[in-house]
Amino acid sequence: MKRGSIWAWLWVVLGAIYFFLPLYATFDFSLRLKRGVLSFAAYENVFNDARFVESFTFSLQMALWTILVSLILIVPTAYWVHLRLPKVRPFVELITLMPFVIPAVVLTFGFIQVYSKSTTFFGIALPSILSLDFFTLPGLMQVRDFVSSRTPITLAFPIILIAGYTVLSFPYMYRAVDTGLRAMDVRTLTEAAESLGANTPSILWYVIFPNLRAALLSGAFLTIAIVVGEFTLASLLVWPAFGPYIQLIGANRAYEPAALSVISFGLTWATLGLLQLFTRGQQGQIAGAR
Amino acid sequence: MAFLELTHVNKLFTQGHYAVDNFNLSVERGEFVSFLGPSGCGKTTTLRMIAGFETPSSGSIKINGDEITNKPPNQRQIGMVFQSYALFPNMTIAGNIGFGLMIGGKSKDEIKKRVGEMLDLIHLPNYGDRYPYQLSGGQQQRVALARAIAIQPQLLLLDEPLSALDAKIRVELRAEIRRIQRELGITTVYVTHDQEEALSLSDRIVVMNSGKIEQVGTPFEIYNYPTTAFAASFVGQLNLIPITVADAASGNCAFNGISLNTSQPTSLANGSSAKLALRPEEMNFGKVDGRNLLDGTVESITFLGSIVRTRVDIGGFMISVDLFNERKITLPQVGEQVTVNFPAHACWILE
After folding, report:
1. How is the beta sheet containing B317-324 ordered, strand by strand?
2. Do B16 and B156 reside in the same domain of the chain?
3. What is the pLDDT of residues A126-174, one digit of tens each?
4. What is the tally of structural domains in chain B?
5. Interaxial angle between packed helices A213-229 and A50-83, expressed in degrees from 0 to 180 and rounded to the nearest 10
6. Looking at CA atoms only, how far is residue A160 from chain B in angstroms?
7. Which of A153, A145, A166, A132 is nearest to A238 (CA)?
8. The pLDDT value given to residue B127
9. Domain coordinates of chain A in residue numbers?
10. Which pTM value belongs to this model?
11. Which among B80, B131, B133 has CB closest to A195?
12. End of a domain among B177, B207, B233?
């Protein structure tokens, strides 16, 4: 073995220890709920807690709505910027990076400031939309009742929370979509479709979205990871999300938080694994086509 | 009335710079017209204005009498083939060819039937289920052609469709494009910077330079009777010999004191300087009575396959002489003193 490679391995091992040792310690600790024996009792407690399932499904729902909203918002925007306004690209990029610069807590207090008051609009009294769930609106209640009577899922669409999450997802979603668009010849594909009679919605639906599959999946998985673990927005706007639940358990129990940490890690890795799986095949296809 | 009519079409890009300057052209139904010129001459911009991807700054474009100048591209019924193929990577070959029909709301059966016909037309009958990335460049471009004509467009536009392909495929596909165009009788506008493509494919060629039309004519006219210095030098090889006019009425002139016959009267005054143009392949070696003769020294010999190009120094001025290759050809040696001969009718005076 060469000298250089010994050093390289040393650094790899050191890095691995730095990363895995705390994880191992957490895992080890999470198994010690019962004195003297190693058991998964803490995990049982977690899974048996109804609030775990509720908060987790709530957060997952939030993640899915967020993905939907940000896709509808970002894909056409990024497409248009690529096609017609390449000059404003740096500006749009800057805007999408704002969540990295402005802390979530600032965003939340902004929301509270602006949206907590009930207002009148053309003489009609409107309630504050801060804590408004879209599905509690008349007409949509039936949809919610219908779904919850047949599944264990209670539909929720807290407008402001999802709006906030959408903002938080911008950097990941925009970057993913932008990279995806760069990887294809947007302009020529658009022109080809136009000359065949397609209008802009058709082009987006048949040509742009399908060719962004890999990019959209990676953006979507990152968004799930962000939203499911998010604490600030959910906590300050008082929604029963997974982040505040972890915090609550962490403050009151000893072994269960460790188990939850390990579960969270597992979920994140599973998402990353899926991301790798889905994006690999697609990339090869695109690369081959060029 | 012509099928495609461009009248006073201008495209102003940046202030004062015309990408296309007063472009006038009439294309007959079923005609194959090429726009030929160097990059930046405005040929692609003109094509894109016909397709609707660019809007003319002024002027009008009509197809079959209909004003289409400001119509969006998706309402023009124009098929377009791009240099980069631009197949939709997410769709199969059949999906690509059928895309325009699907958008047009045709029934599944109709699409299937038409896609089948198109695949037969481009000689790729069993490729319907494959994806673009599984095809070679030449095959992809054939699919792109099929996709463009599947919608039965009024007009077919091809934007340097062969530039990304290697030489052999290029020649094959050239013939293929011409065959399909003739078979369907579709009016076609073809953009290229490759003179060989333009000469071999077109019914008529539009030679363009810096946004303007230099000359419009059949390949034969463009090559043998170019009307401008640019058209003459851009299409084919050309020798331009500096001369002084000796007798304007008979077209006699002089180079380095040697008298040359052109048999082409000129409007230039006697004694004025001009350029004598002639193709290298019109020249030969040896003293031949009744022909123009120039003495010189062979500077270089380049073997190009079917022809051998020699460079000859005639009193400090270089000219090219092309000889047709044959197995028993006797080539002069570099440095050898030679006499170059050419007939009077091969030359013309550029004013």
Report:
1. B284-285, B337-342, B292-303, B307-314, B317-324
2. yes
3. 667 777 777 777 777 788 788 777 777 777 788 888 999 999 999 999 9
4. 2
5. 140
6. 36
7. A132
8. 92
9. 49-289
10. 0.80
11. B80
12. B233
Separation between Cα atoms, residue B152 and residue B238, nearest integer Å: 41
Q: Name which of B90, B131, B157 is nearest A210 (Cβ-Cβ).
A: B90
Identify the pLDDT of residue A167: 92
Single-letter residue type at A231: F
Domain span including residue B17: 4-233
Q: Do A197 and B132 touch (CB under 8 A)?
A: no
Contacts of A287 in chain B (CB under 8 A): 133
Of the candidate CATH numbers 3.40.640.10, 2.30.330.10, 1.10.10.60, 1.10.3720.10, the domain formed by A49-289 belongs to: 1.10.3720.10
Question: Which pLDDT score, from 0 to 100, does residue B274 have?
Answer: 87
- Whether the pLDDT of residue B73 is over 90: the answer is yes
Residue B136 forms contact with A (CB below 8 Å): no
Please give the structure tokens belonging to residue A24. Answer: 């191992």
Rounded to an integer, the average pLDDT of B117-142 is: 92
Same domain membership, residue B146 and residue B8: yes
ipTM: 0.84
C-alpha of B78 from chain center: 21
Share above pLDDT 70 across residues of chain A, in percent, rounded to a whole number: 92
Residue of B nearest to A289 (CA): B133
B105 in A contact zone (CB under 8 Å): no
Q: In CATH, what number is assigned to the domain containing residue B306?
A: 2.40.50.100
Would you state the pLDDT for residue A273?
84
Rg of the Cα atoms in chain A: 23
pLDDT (tens digit, 9 = 90+) per residue, A226-256? 888 888 888 888 888 888 888 888 888 888 8
Are B11 and B70 members of one domain? yes
